[in-house]
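Consider a typical record:
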Amino acid sequence: MNILGIDTSFLADTSIGLSFQSPEACELEIHVRAPLSQEEKLLYSVNSGLDILKKSLQDIDLIAVGIGPGSFTGLRIGIAAAKSIAWALKKRITGFSSLDLLVNSILPALSISKPLIVPLIDARLSRVFTALFEDHKRITGDLDIEPAELVKMIRKQKNKTAIFLGDGLTKYTNYFKNISGRNCILIPDAVISGSSICKMANKLPIDEYDFNPDSIVPVYLRKSEAEVRNIG
């Protein structure tokens, strides 16, 4: 299966992955962090990746996209682009939690037995988007939560090692670097890798993916920052 993976859930980052199985196997991922719009970064990444591999969008069988939670603007742009390609070229499409994608981007590098993994995406307004994982298995749903409340939840878990990753650490490192009774590992530069999107998409049979782009909707855990501020 030939896959294009897209994630734009981080405020400043764009990640894409390309995985081709035919006629010859090849893979490529691009991550961009630059003072450009998400549209510019996404267009650059997809076009550059296809040019490098000498492929075209017509060669893609499946588009896989991160659906959040994350940046409201970023998610809208990434999902709209994925759906537009699927509509125009009549390709299959699927969506994955951006928190699951972040965890799966770092898991291959871990050699710790059953750590508590806490992906953190900056939600602004002094909050983070997160979920708790034991290895790659979820033990909570998606959360929109204050760092102090998250620490209280973590203290109730039995795992001795906690791994925190993602841009949510940039502002809130002090909350997570020293939690009593735990070995805390902080990876603030962790990002979603394009290859992890493609690998997750490859795990399911192709007939489980949809030809209907309208089935892909963003995960918004709350109203946008602008709407919240207007309400206040």
User: Anything to note?
Assistant: The helical segments are 38-53, 72-89, 98-106, 147-155, 169-176, 194-202, 225-231. The chain has two domains: 3-98+192-231, 99-187. The chain is about 35% helix and 25% strand. The chain has a mean pLDDT of 90.
